[in-house]
Specification:
Layout: H1 2-27, H2 37-42, H3 63-69, H4 97-103, H5 131-136, E1 159-165, E2 168-173, E3 178-182, E4 188-192, H6 194-198, H7 202-205, H8 220-223, E5 274-283, E6 286-295
Length: 296
Amino acid sequence: MRNLKTLVLAALAIALLALPAAAQARRGDRDNDRLPDRWEKRHRLSTHHNDRRGDRDRDGLSNRGEYLAGTSPRRKDSDRDRIWDDDEDRDHDRVDNGNEMREGTHPGRRDSDRDGRRDDREDRDRDGLRNGPEDKTGNDPIDRDSDDDGVRDGDEQAGTVVSFTDGVLTIDLANGGEVSGRVTAATRIECENENEAEDHNSSATTSSSGPGHDGTGDSDSNSGSGSDNSGPGSDNSGPGNADDDGDDDGEHHNGGRRDRTCPGGTAVLVPGARIHEAELELTSAGAVWEEVELLN
């Protein structure tokens, strides 16, 4: 009788252990990575181990991000528009897919936390520079001081060029207002691409997004009903995309180029040029730009 009781208890324990796996299988996500089995099979990903943080096509967007954005995890530029998937803005909230994932917001939802404020108007790292302007000016949305120079991003004079006339450069600040100063021979004018400025790398892309987030672009409180479906067409990233081999179809990421010299010097100071940061010095002769760093 004792042996029978032991066997019954052992069988019950095994059955209880199997319940979570069975529940996941019924929901169509056997490996519990928040990627539906059907989607993983379509894109030739494993349904037996958690690979939501993987980046098969090395476009800076995790597999989970690709699913939420409705793009292909096997192609850097799913729609072949010469913009990599992490730089696309699927929900048109002025924050690209890659930064949405880093901020812990949903790349397929304009107002991820449903607080009545669009994601670009949030300030994830509370540095005085909202998510949208962080994205536009190439600053890190989860780092208050992107370049570690001791000045928070909201105070870096980031924005766009309004005009450069008679040696005076005027910048439209990302968070509102304008500021002007003279450009002299001593002014350092530098250029870098957006990914250099944001310091995007694999570890940053897969890092935790802070309290309440799992580092995959949406928190449990934000997922809501239907969060496992990124919208119409989310299981198919466009004609021919599912079987692509992840080749580079875009003109994005420049392979870590570090030459910051702007070609043409002041010729790059044209209206609309994006300013990553700029340093203004107040002198006896007036305001002078000490450094202007642009995105190219």
